[in-house]
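Following up on my earlier thread - several people asked me to post the actual chain instead of describing it. Fair enough. Here it is, all 186 residues.
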Amino acid sequence: MLISLKTFQLEAISKLNEAMDSNKKNIILESGTGSGKTVILTHFIDEFMKENPGYVAVWFSPGKGNLEEQSKHKMDLYIPTATTKVLQDVLNIGFSEGDTVFINWELVNKKGNIALSDGEKRNLEDMISMAKDSGLKFLIVIDEEHLNKTIKSYDIVEMFDPVKIIRASATPKKDAKANHIVVPPS
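Reply from S.P.:
Thanks for posting it. Predicted structure:
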């Protein structure tokens, strides 16, 4: 499904690209509910991946309502050429260059989850290590970032040793050390 991006969405994508070139690791995308954060982020990721080989994008979504599946579905719809996966795909076959992987926080943040447990099967940490060993770099997107600011969440993000972290929310936590991109309510 080809969609026409609005001017403010194109401007946000351009600002995200500029922020990728800065020396600041964190990028905050502040955009109101209904403004098309998913449209902005999926198109940005697609553009970034095409111009920057060797990357994997990992998109964390809040646990409620299977938002990671909704976001994956939207990217599949808006950008049919994108390679999208969910956590189970990564646990089965690993990360590949150009992937956008959608992960529900609850699958990695809750006690007893199998994604991070040690056992006979490879876990997420193993797959991250294998990806890094093969030279892949990570771009992390945290959707609705204000909902999962926990020590465990920070630890999981740091396992990826991401080049950049994009924190998207209508109501983000302030961070003076981050690039702050604001989509005006108007």
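The mean pLDDT is 88. That should answer part of your original question.
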